[in-house]
Amino acid sequence: MYCNQCGTPHALETCPVCGHNNRVAHSNVTPGANVQYFDPETTLPLSGWWRRVGASTVDGLVLAVPGLVLTKAIGPMATIVVQLAYFTLSWRCKSRTMGNMAVGTSVVRDDGSALTLATAFGRALSLVVWNFVTAIGEVILLRHLYLEGSGQATALHLTNGWAPGAIMMATGWLLSVLNGLWPLWDARRQAWHDKVAGTLVVMTPKN
Question: For residue 128, what pLDDT is reported?
Answer without folding.
Answer: 86
